[in-house]
Write a structure and sequence with these properties.
The chain is α+β, with helices and mostly antiparallel strands. It has eight helices and ten strands. The protein folds into three domains: 76 residues; 67 residues; 148 residues. A ten-stranded antiparallel β-barrel has the order 1-2-3-4-5-6-7-8-9-10.
């Protein structure tokens, strides 16, 4: 006997909307070609692609490298260059570009110094080929050479043409790489400072409201920094919490979610990305983020269960060498309970809130129409 399924049919899953790429057109095209067809980046396209990747956050570069690693071409490159460190350690713009250009360490220049060294080698190779050709001819007419020597001459002349083309490409790349700007440590540093007012009972929970300003690292194209005011609100219990932030920088506006145990917390939001913190409730906290921020905040009591807080974050790609691995390591530990809580929230939305709306629609009088505005 077949039982009819009377459960409420689930709406069809929506196609995920593609996110707008933050990469330059050249860098984005190189990534898509590598993923789609395994095409590697041409030598003369390296400088423009590198320029796009240098503006990326270390956490974003790490995620991109992991994505490339699982493509068919990435697996081939990984198998071919097991001893190469392009796929290991901290992800950098230089490593990502070298991977996209074929994964051979030392053969793809990403700095003027590397390009100059390769250019010198290529000039030497060309000079050697010319010397071999001249020695073979020894002043003779090419038609007077034996068949074997004529074949060798043709091979040498083809190699000379190829070597000269490679030398010309390296000259172009060297010149272009000299124009690619790299930020110094001060230019690459960003700051975020805020002041908040909050209320809470230790061990139970509370809420807070914060306003502040974020100063971005220097923009490599404009040589200027962004200054973006922001405001955020957060509420939570002793174990879970959430909130929302608004900023003039749209990429920093959005919801937040956090999970905590006594004196330690893990959270994710648009302002800081993935973040871990060590804290004394309603007193002070030290925080670090995957993308290279360290922060400190403290609270001053102004009334029973009411505090005024101050926070400061410093961001720099060099900091990500420490904070990135630390945050990702902690995430592996706290990930399962965080995903479980998120599933619980999704279940409540689907089976309680959504179902309540359907039941209300079913109990509405038949033929009832919304009243005219």
């Amino acid at each position: 006997m077949r039982i009819k399924d009377r459960s409420t049919p689930k709406p069809a899953a929506e196609e995920p909307k593609p996110q707008a790429s933050t990469l330059s057109p050249e860098a984005s095209a190189a990534v898509e070609a590598f993923k789609a067809t395994g095409a590697t980046l041409a030598l003369t396209d390296v400088p423009k692609a590198l320029d796009g990747f240098l503006s990326q956050n270390p956490a974003e570069l790490g995620a991109l490298r992991d994505e490339l690693k699982h493509t068919p071409q990435g697996q081939r490159e990984l198998a071919s260059h097991q001893a190469d460190d392009l796929w290991k350690g901290r992800a950098t713009a230089d490593k990502v570009v070298k991977i996209l250009a074929g994964g051979i360490k030392g053969a793809v220049p990403t700095t003027p110094k590397e390009a100059a060294a390769l250019l010198s080698d290529s000039l030497g190779t060309t000079h050697t080929l010319y010397a071999e050709r001249d020695a073979l001819l020894a002043g003779k007419d090419p038609k007077a050479l034996s068949a074997a020597d004529q074949t060798k001459l043709q091979s040498l002349e083809a190699a000379i043409v190829q070597s000269e083309a490679h030398t010309d490409a390296l000259r172009t790349v060297h010149h272009q790489l000299e124009g690619v700007k790299r930020l110094n440590p001060l230019e690459a540093t960003g700051l975020m400072a805020g002041i908040s007012i909050g209320t809470g009972v230790p061990g139970l929970g509370g809420g807070s409201f914060e306003v502040g300003t974020a100063v971005s690292p220097e923009n490599r194209a404009t040589d200027k920094r962004r200054i973006d005011p922001y405001a955020s609100v957060g509420v939570g219990t002793a174990f879970v919490g959430g909130g929302y932030a608004l900023s003039t920088d749209k990429s920093r506006s959005g919801p937040s979610f956090g999970f905590s145990v006594p004196f330690f917390g893990f959270s994710q939001d648009k302002q800081h990305g993935k973040r871990i913190s060590a804290f004394i409730p309603n007193v002070a906290s030290f925080q670090m983020t995957e993308r290279g921020e360290i922060g400190f905040s403290f609270a001053v009591p102004v009334a029973p269960f009411v505090q005024v807080g101050f926070s400061l974050f410093v961001e720099n790609p060099a900091i990500a060498r420490i904070t990135g691995p630390a945050v990702r390591g902690i995430e592996k530990v706290v990930g399962p309970p965080v995903r479980l809580i998120k599933r619980g929230i999704s279940w409540v939305k689907e089976h309680v809130i959504h179902r309540h709306g359907e039941d209300a629609a079913k109990t509405a009088p038949a033929g009832a129409e919304p009243s005219p505005a």
